[in-house]
Amino acid sequence: MKKIFLIVSIALTALIFPNFSMGELLNLSTPKTSLVLDASVGEPLKILYYGDKIKEADVDNLKVSPLLNHQAYPAYGIYPQNEAALSLTHADGNRTTVLEVTGVEKEVKDGAEITTVKMKDKFYPVEVKVNYRVRPGYDVIETWVDIVNNKENNITLNRFMSGYLPIRYGDVWLSSLYGNWGNETRLTQEPLTHGVKMIKNKDGVRNAQTSHPEVMFSLDGQPRENEGRVIGAALCYPGNYKLFIDTDASNHHHFFAGINEENSEYHLKAGETFTTPELALTYSEEGLSGASRNFHKWGRDNRLHAGDKERKILLNSWEGVYLKVNEDVMAGMMEDIAKMGGELFVMDDGWFGDKYKRNVDNSSLGDWIVDTNKLPNGIGGLLKEAKKNGISFGIWIEPEMANTISELYEKHPEYIVKADNRDIATGRGGTQIVLDMSNPAVQDIVFEVVDTLLTSYPEIDYIKWDANAPIMEHGSQYLSKDNQSHLFIDYHKGLTKTLERIRAAHPEVTIQACASGGGRASWGLLPWFDEFWTSDNTDALQRIYMQWGTSYFYPAIAMASHISASPNHQTSRRIPIKFRADVAMSGRLGLEMQPKDMNESDRAVCEQAIADYKKIRPIVQFGDLYRLQSPYDKKGVASLMYVTPDKDDAVFFWWKTETFVNQQVPRIPMAGLNPDKIYRITELNRIDRTPLPFEGKEYSGKFLISNGLEIPLTHNAPAGQNSDFASRVLRVTEVK
Ligand code: DGJ
Question: What is the pTM of this model?
C-alpha cells in the first residue's frame, strides 16, 4: 500500500518538478550540474552521480554503471570498519543504525526546490531525512539532515555529519585554507593520497582563524584556476567542524563534512529532532575560479546579508588610535575621511566602561556604557558630527564577551562559560571570559545590548561585532550535568537565535563579523552579517596571499580590505601608498589609519583610489572573479580580474610580489571577457608621469584573452614615489 502511494506521489511530483525523474532515481539538476540519487524504497539512499549536467538519456544507465556507487548518508554499525556520516547509540545501548528509504517529498520554499529523502531505521523509531535544496539559476546544491527521535527514550548522537560525498578515486587534488592570527586563509594544495586528511576546528567561537570548513577538489590532477573539473564544498556553520577525506582501498575518496562531534555527543529525547548545518556543494568545469564564481553568486544572492547592496567606503579607527578614543580625535577622523571621499566612519574598541574604563584591553567588556571622560557628548555627539560631515557612523562591540574586571561579571558570574570545580580560564588581557550563549538569559542580554544601542541611536549605520576569545574551558553553568556535551553546539544555536532576533528588529544596519581578525569569515554567519574583517594583518603584500585564499569561497563584497599606515603595524614593512591602495581596492575598500599622519602626496593617492573605487565598485562587489596568476606559484607577480555578468566592463589587478633586476615575470592572459567584443583600457590609480603605452587603446576580447598586455615592471613616478613595489589597476571597458 505504502509503495503504491509512493509511486503515485512520485508520478505526480514528476509532473510538477522537471528536476524529478520517474522511478526511484532522483535527478537534481542545476543549470550546469546534476546530482543523481537512487531512492528505492526499502533500500539505503545511494548516490550515483555528481558532476556536469547529465542528459536524461544517460540517467537510466547510471543504475547499471554509476559514476559513483555508495550510500549517500552512510550510518555506523554494520561493517563498522567503514567511516560513517551518522553514528548513534539507541536507548538500549545498541550502537548500530540500519537505514532504508521510506519515501521522497518535494516542496518549493522561497523559490527553491527542496527534495527530502526520508529514511528510517529498520528496527528502531529513528528517522533520518536527507534534504537537498536546488535554487533556480545557481550551480550549488545545499544538503543537510534531520535526525528525528520518534519515540525512543534518550538516544545519543555520536556523529552527525551534514553530508557525505564519494569522489571517484584518481589524481584528485585538495585545495584548502589554513592559517593563524595575522596569517589567515593561506591556500594549500595537495594530492589526496591514501589515509585520512582531516581539517578541523575546536575553537568554540572563531572557526575560521586557523583552518576553514571549505574545500575544493580538482579531479584532473594538479589544480588549475580556469580549466578542469572541480568539486567545491562549503560547510555553512560557525562552530566547531570536522571535514575529512578517507582515501581507502575502494574506488572512492570518501568526503565527510559536519559539526565536530568530539566531546559533543548530543542527546535527543523522544520527539526531538536534530538538524545539521547545511553543506553547500558545487561543481564546475571552469577550474577553481569557476567553482569560486558559483559560490560567490550563490552566496551573494542567497546567503550573505544584503548581498545586493553596495558597501560603503569606510575609515575604521583601530590602527589609527587603538584604545585612545576621544571626542576630538573621532571628530577629526570623521572630517578627514569625509574630505577624502569616504562614506562611513567606524569607532573601534575603547569607547565604553563606567565603573571600569576601557583604557587597556583587560576590562569593561560587558559594560556597554559610554565612557563620558572620553566622549562627554556620548554617541549622540558623535552622530551629530558624522551628520555634519555628511557621512554615516558605525561602532564596535564585542557582545558575547566580558572581562573579570567588569560590572557584568560582578553581577552575573553565572553567565560565563566555566567548568565546575576549576579556576576561570581567561584570554586577552588575562581577564577576558566568554558569555555562555547556550543560556537564554545571556541570549537576552546580548540581544538587549545591540537592540538598545540601535533603538537609542537609529542613525547608527554599522556595527563591528568582534569576538576575541575561544571557549577556554568545557563547562556550562546553565546546561544540566547530563548535557554538558551540548555546550559547543548550543553556544551556536543560542548565538544564531540571537542574531535572528537582532536582524528581525534591525534589518538595515550593516554588521561586520570580526574575530581577532578573520576568525569569523564563515558562511555559517553571513546570513546575519554583511561582511567580515579578513585579518588583523593589513600588510598589503601579505594580504595578497590571504585575500587570494579568501576569494576561493567568499566574494569581494564581503571581504573587508583596508589601506593602513607604512611601516605596517604588524610586519613593519614599508609599502608605498599606491600598492597598499591597489590591494585594498580588490576587496571591500576601507582605511585603517589616522589620516592626520599621512603626508600630502599619500593623501592625494588615497583620495584618487577612493574616487576610482567608486567607479569600479559595482564590478568588484558584484562581478565575476577570474583568478589569473596565483601568488603561491611564486612567479614574481599575482593577478586577478573581475568582470560584469554582461562582460561589458572589467577591472584587472596586477601586483608584483617580489623585485629583482632584469626579472622575468609572465605576461598574464586575461579571462572572462567576450572574445568578440572590443574593450578600451584605462589605468586607474595612476602615479606614473607618462601614461601606459596601451592607455586609451582598444583591443578585442580575443586578443586580451590570448595574450594579455605587457605590464611595465616598475613605475615612472615623481621623485620619492618609486620603490621596489609595483602594481596596476586597469579598467577594461567595452567600446559600444
Ligand atoms: C580585534 C579586531 O580584529 C581588531 O580589528 C580590533 O577591533 C580589536 N579587536 C579591538 O580590540
Answer: 0.96
